């Protein structure tokens, strides 16, 4: 495959500055699977089977939730709630208005390890994807949160390997997307409980899917990343738009990348962004075009190991990352407004970051250029 065209476009995003970083559990070898922003602060799922909470601006520890008995595979935030899934076969919903010692408000139990899940935009449907069971069956379970005792439907014929990704449609409550180690992307209409009738489209990516999701003004497109660090773009009707191949080849164009962290679509700018990392802990942000990339910026000094999770909000100007070094890092597009806790390590802005901030501010206020040729 030909080299992927890459240009530099630092003005596409305001500059993220590293404000503060902290170890999730000082003195231990605990590492972080994911880090997200919730109503009560930063939540990080860790290798010691906990969800730990931190104050955003200082990363001072606030407490933890402990319920699962095996690896936590995914966490998500909803209003006043945190949702967690685990290889113990359970999904838990926590009421964040309750004490940290409280049990989950609601649990959903399966016989198979849950690898991914999502909840519909109206919170009326929970969908989970499971690992291949002893009968060589990979299940997608559909739940009504009002009746959590058992699934309302089970789809078990669409995939032949682990269901690694579930993503609900961002605006249509009864549609969702699944991705699997078998390389298939499947789009479903959950208003139909019969699997054959519910399955709308199937795309074969040819690679084991590790991440997927909707993007575009009307969520009319799908991105798919693989555990071979490839990236593809599709329509939601299974027509391929772009195949970038192995994004590690960007190193030939001067952007060192060892793995994909994930993709994010920003509805305000109508752009799809790729976050990729290095084994040394650097994070590279790129804009994804129809057949090229624009390198925007590198987030450095936050980590010294593989970055597992990056959660960011362009409108509010913050990002949080978690990595195998056990560290949580808080980034923002403004300079630190208050001194951090002495329990964590502050990062002082440099003169160059001040300059980048000024340039980025001008860009975010005055740059109306669109680059979304999907």
From TrEMBL:
Q: Where is this region: Disordered?
A: 333-374
Q: What is the lineage of its organism?
A: Eukaryota, Fungi, Fungi incertae sedis, Zoopagomycota, Kickxellomycotina
What's the name of the protein? WD40 repeat-like protein
**Which keywords annotate this record?**
Repeat, WD repeat
Q: Can you say where the WD repeats lie in this chain?
A: 65-104
Point out the signal peptide segment: none
Q: Which domain of life is it from?
A: Eukaryota
Species of provenance: Coemansia pectinata
């Amino acid at each position: 495959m030909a080299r992927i065209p890459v240009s530099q476009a630092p003005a596409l995003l305001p500059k993220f500055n590293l404000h503060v970083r902290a170890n999730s559990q000082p003195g231990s070898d605990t590492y972080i699977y994911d880090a997200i922003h919730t109503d009560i602060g930063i939540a990080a799922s860790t290798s010691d089977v906990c969800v730990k909470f931190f104050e955003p601006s200082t990363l001072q520890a606030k407490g933890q939730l402990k319920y699962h008995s095996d690896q936590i595979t995914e966490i998500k935030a909803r209003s006043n709630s945190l949702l967690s899934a685990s290889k113990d076969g359970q999904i838990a919903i926590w009421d964040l208005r309750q004490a940290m010692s409280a049990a989950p408000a609601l649990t959903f139990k399966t016989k198979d390890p849950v690898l991914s899940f999502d909840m519909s935009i109206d919170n009326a449907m929970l969908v989970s994807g499971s690992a291949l069971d002893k009968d060589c069956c990979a299940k997608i379970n559909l739940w009504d949160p009002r009746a959590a005792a058992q699934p309302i439907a089970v789809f078990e014929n669409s995939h032949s390997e682990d269901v690694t990704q579930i993503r609900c449609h961002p605006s249509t409550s009864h549609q969702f997307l699944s991705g699997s180690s078998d390389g298939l992307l499947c789009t479903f209409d959950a208003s139909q409980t019969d699997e054959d009738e519910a399955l709308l489209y199937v795309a074969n990516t040819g690679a084991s899917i590790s991440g997927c999701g909707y993007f575009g003004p009307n969520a009319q497109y799908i991105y798919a990343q693989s555990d071979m660090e490839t990236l593809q773009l599709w329509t939601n009707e299974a027509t391929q738009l772009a195949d970038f191949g192995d994004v590690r080849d960007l190193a030939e164009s001067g952007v060192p990348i060892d793995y994909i962290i994930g993709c994010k679509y920003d509805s305000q700018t109508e752009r799809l962004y790729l976050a990729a990392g290095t084994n040394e802990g650097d994070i590279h942000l790129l804009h994804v075009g129809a057949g090229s990339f624009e390198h925007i910026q590198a987030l450095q000094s936050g980590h010294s190991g593989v970055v597992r999770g990056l959660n960011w909000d362009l409108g509010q100007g913050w990002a949080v990352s978690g990595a195998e070094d056990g560290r949580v890092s808080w980034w923002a597009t403004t300079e630190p407004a208050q001194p951090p806790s002495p329990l964590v390590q502050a990062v002082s802005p440099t003169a160059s970051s001040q300059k980048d901030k000024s340039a980025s501010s001008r860009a975010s206020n005055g740059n109306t250029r669109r680059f979304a040729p999907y």
